[in-house]
Amino acid sequence: MTSAAQSAARANPILRLGKSVQGALFRYAGLRGYILFSPTLLVLVGAMCIPVGMLVIYSFWTQKYIEIDTTLTLANYLQIFNKTSYMLLIGKSILISTAVTTATVVLAYPIAYFIAFRVHQHKIVWLILITVPFWTSYLLRVFSWKVILGYNGVINSALKWLGIVDQPLAFLLHNPTAVIITLAHAWAPIAILPIFVSLEKIDRSLLEAATDLGDGPVARFLRVTLPLSIPGVVAASMLVFIPTVGDYITPQLVGGPDGLMVGNLMHAMFFKANNWPLGSALAILSAAAITVTSLAIWFLTKHARERAK
């Protein structure tokens, strides 16, 4: 900065105040962290907190024909609690998502274990191959399972060709099982990555010590590898469980009437029945149920790890 510019800066009180504030903010490490985090914080507030806040407000209003009554009331929540089908659908969605999460983690763990412990070169290539399904549209993957499980699909055609069945199996599609299979396949790559990271961070000397103390492969896995990989398993479970509860595309395409979930009901309330207040109340209750279930899983996992220590 030239001497003239420096003189102008000293003469301008606004610039002096700005430099003083800047110096005070960057003098403390905590404040520097908040400054660096502020752009992300603004995005989170704008993209998540504001829409959720609007849902909360809408949930206390009521729909009166084509108009919304902005009088604060608990009518929507009382309607949901009094209508057994709504609560059963939320519970059913939790159960289906729990089954999807369990199946996904069971499928993802061996693959993550193989890459972490058996692949010694070009691991990045294997990780890229895992993400290949995401190069195609989610809808295309769902439709592909509809073709595979359909009445005249790949499985039924193969069974008829082999002479195992005379008529196609109708129970493969349009049921909760089809939803679980499709969602588990769709979310498996997401679950593999955190489990892989957790396994990759395990100190290999601990495994060697367990071997020296007489542990076989199974005992070494149960006593060392599995407990140390629990954080990755929990992270994978949360990444799968939380979004699948509100999924409505997969249940609609492959679930049929028996495979519908609470996301389908919320979609119908917002876009078909035009009842935004009731749909908002359903969304808030579903989010509360997801939060309680996730916290329960976290506390149980934490308690199990503490007992294992």
Layout of secondary structure:
Elements: H1 3-11, H2 13-26, H3 29-59, E1 62-64, E2 67-69, H4 75-82, H5 84-117, H6 123-130, H7 138-149, H8 154-162, H9 176-200, H10 204-212, H11 217-228, H12 230-245, H13 249-255, H14 262-271, H15 276-308
Antiparallel strand pairs: 1-2
Helix pairs in contact: 3-15, 5-9, 5-12, 7-9, 7-13, 9-12, 9-13, 10-11, 12-15, 14-15
Low-confidence stretches: none
Main sheet record: 2 strands, antiparallel
End-to-end separation in angstroms reads 60 Å
Number of strands: 2
Shape descriptor: globular
Q: What is Rg?
A: 26 Å
Rounded mean pLDDT score: 86
CATH-defined superfamily of the largest domain: MetI-like
CATH class value of the largest domain: Mainly Alpha
Structural class: mainly alpha
- What is the H/E order? HHHEEHHHHHHHHHHHH
Spatial sequence of strands, sheet with the most strands: 1-2
Helix content estimate: over 70%
CATH architecture of the largest domain: Orthogonal Bundle
Tally of DSSP helical segments: 15
How many separate structural domains?
A: 2
What's the quick description here?
The protein has about 300 residues and is an all-alpha fold. The chain contains 15 helices and two strands.
Features of this protein?
15 helices; MetI-like fold; two-stranded antiparallel ribbon; 309 residues; mainly alpha
Please tell me about this protein's structure.
The chain has a two-stranded antiparallel ribbon with strand order 1-2. It is built from 15 helices and two strands. 77% of the residues lie in helices and 2% in strands. The protein is mostly helical and 309 residues long. The longest helix is centred in the N-terminal third of the chain and has 34 residues, at 84-117. The chain has two domains: 1-59, no CATH class; 77-308, MetI-like fold. Helix 5 (84-117) packs parallel to helix 9. It starts with a helix and ends with a helix.
